[in-house]
Each structure stands twice: as C-alpha cells, then as structure tokens.
Design a protein that fits this description.
Number of helices: 14
Number of strands: 11
CATH topology of the largest domain: Aspartate Aminotransferase, domain 2
Largest sheet: 7 strands, mixed
Distance between the termini: 5 Å
Shape: globular
Order of helices and strands: HHEHEHHEHEHEHHEEHHHEEHEEH
Helix content: 25-40%
Radius of gyration: 21 Å
Length: 355
C-alpha cells in the first residue's frame, strides 16, 4: 500500500469530498452581477424575488408559498418550526441530516423532539410511522406531528413516487404533515426522469406538504427555498424566518441565483451531469483491484470500501470523508463541476494508492 506522501500524481481539479466544495455555476454568477445593478427594496420587496416566487408556483403547478433563506440547516429549521409545537415530535431516519449533521438545531429552535428510526438504506417505511402513532394522545409522551424524509437520502438512495405517497398517506391518515429535505432534490429529480413532472411526482402529487428546496449543492453560491405546498401551513413563516436569522436583507441576490437555476431547467441539467459523473466514477473505480463498491450509485454519490492505508494516502492527496470508518467505507461526491478528467485523475490516484 502507498504511504500518504507517495502519490506523486496531479490531483483532480474538483473535490470528491462534497458537492458543497464545488464553485458557483457561471450563469448563477452572471445573474448575481446583473442583480447588482442599481438599488432594490430589501427583505424580499424586490422584483426579482417576486419573479422567483412565481417561478416556484409554475414549477409545482399550484399557488405555493416560498420563503428564501440562507442555507440548508436554516431551511429545515424554518420549515419544521412552521409545523410544530414544543411538545411535538418529528419522525425521521437516524441518518437524516436533521438528526446527524445540524448540531441539534431543529430540536433547539423548535423545542420539539426528533424520533430518529433505524433505516439501513436511509429510507423510512410507512409501518415505522404507524408504530409511533400509539404515542398520540398520551400526555406523558411527545406527540408525533411531522414525518421528515430526505430526497435523495444521505445514503445516496431514492424514494420512488409510490414510496413517498405511501408515507404521506400514512402520515395524513393520522394527522401528521410531511416535510421533505430536498438539499439534493435536483439530483433526485434528474435520477427519476429529469423533468418537472418527475419533481412533481415525488412532491406535490405524492402528498408532500413542505419542501426544503436545495440551491447550494445544485450550483448556487448560497441560498435555499422553503416551499409550502399548502400555503396555510406557511402562514407564520415570515416571522419564523426572521426569528431564526434566515431573512436575507438583500434577498435579490438569493432570488437572482434561483432565477438563473430555474431558467430552462438549468438545475436539472447540472444535476444530471453530476449524476452521470458519479456513474462514470463508479464504473471506472469499481474495476480497480482492492475497491469494493458497497451500493450502486443512484444520484451523485459513490460509496466504496478499500484498505485503510489506501484511504489515508488518498485523503492526504485529494481529501474526502469517511462514511463508516468501522468498516473502511468512504463516500465520494460528484457535482455539477466534476469532469471526466477529474475522474480519470482520481481513479489513477486510487490505483496508485493500492499498489
């Protein structure tokens, strides 16, 4: 095995650590520059924000309420706070971003509890929701009020439209609402058909109530959108967003980015490229002796196992994160900016590390 200093090869130009490591798409940057001309009303009173709100209505085919925010954790907090009282709870996967990677923010700011359930593939099942319903009405227990699913999941898996609909039906039957963490909704949409209809099939048509719609991982500099499919659920979102520190004063710069991303379905195009690069990486690295792919790529993530010395050598050369260090499993992420040359360089590094 190679030692960390022995990989004397050119590293990839883009990082496989996270899709957040990618830069900003040129069309998004151009839109921000254009938005910088002159002055505009603050806090969402500008024309660009109004246009983007209309774009989201067109995208989902109904009169949705949209709240633009700074980032993904903020989007989830604002969405969940709009749906919860402090004695209530969110049912989610134990690997959900809200349960693992948000430093307890949803619980702190909502006052509610997360009921995180085991999901080997990151996907909740309707029967897991049903098992928690016995808590309803018992004053000694938190009251389940929201089901939160992630699309695509942290494990790189996808819910089908039927799976989302089954979860929504179960939740609604018992009076719960459904939140979808869509930090990578673009990648999911691309994988499920790469059309607006594909997006609608796993959101509005499948009974989802509120969506955290990701922009940062899709090619933006920053910014996410909280989408209330049922506008009545977002009646207080303006006040919640302000208290949560998620109200951008110069909102036109967030809106301009979304306007660029939503124009001509650029968001789907970029996510499709990221997904295709992940599939290419899996094919090429999967043929290297010593690499074991642990699951087929569904979106823009590749999961693999390889010997610890090789992992450490590669991380020193072109950093990426462990996924499960107990079994030497890693996760490699592609983005809109990943190129075939990046993959060729990275695979060459993997081969060298395993010599």
């Amino acid at each position: 095995m190679a030692d960390p200093s022995s990989l004397d090869l050119p590293a990839p130009a883009t990082s496989f650590a996270s899709d957040n490591a990618a830069g900003v798409h040129p069309s998004v940057l151009d839109a921000m520059v254009a938005a910088n001309e002159g002055s505009a009303l603050a806090y969402g009173g500008d024309a660009c924000t109004a246009r983007v709100e209309d774009r989201f209505r067109d995208l989902f085919g109904r009169d949705v309420t949209t709240a633009l925010v700074w980032g993904g954790t903020g989007a989830n907090v604002v969405a969940l706070q709009s749906l919860l009282r402090p004695w209530q709870a969110v049912i989610c996967s134990e690997s959900a971003h809200i349960a693992v990677d948000e430093c307890g923010a949803p619980e702190r700011f909502t006052g509610a509890k997360l009921i995180d359930l085991p999901t080997p593939d990151g996907k909740l099942a309707p029967e897991q929701i049903t098992e928690q319903i016995h808590l309803l009405g018992d004053e000694h227990h938190v009251q389940p009020a929201v089901v939160s699913i992630t699309q695509s999941t942290e494990s790189g898996t996808l819910y089908t439209a039927d799976e989302v609909a089954a979860i929504s039906d179960t939740a609604h039957r018992h009076g719960l609402t459904v939140h979808l963490d869509g930090a990578r909704i673009a990648n999911a949409t691309a994988a499920l058909g790469a059309t607006v209809d594909a997006l609608r099939s796993v959101t509005v048509d499948a009974g989802v109530d509120v969506i955290s719609f990701g922009g940062t991982k899709a090619g933006m500099m920053y910014g996410e959108a909280v989408i209330f499919i049922d506008p009545t659920l977002g009646a207080d979102v303006r006040f919640i967003r302000k208290q949560a520190g998620q109200l951008p004063s110069k909102m036109r710069y967030v809106a301009a980015q979304f306007e660029a991303l939503l124009t001509d379905n650029l968001w789907i195009e970029l996510a499709s490229s990221a997904n295709a690069m992940a599939a290419r990486l899996a094919t090429e690295v999967g043929g290297v002796d010593g690499v074991e792919l642990t699951r087929p790529p569904a979106v823009n993530s590749v999961f693999a196992r390889l010997p610890r010395p090789a992992i450490e050598a590669l991380q020193s050369w072109s950093f990426f994160w462990d996924w499960d260090h107990h079994v030497d499993e890693v996760r490699w992420m592609t983005s809109w900016a990943t190129t075939a040359d990046d993959i060729a360089r990275f695979v060459a590094g993997v081969r060298a590390a395993l010599v």
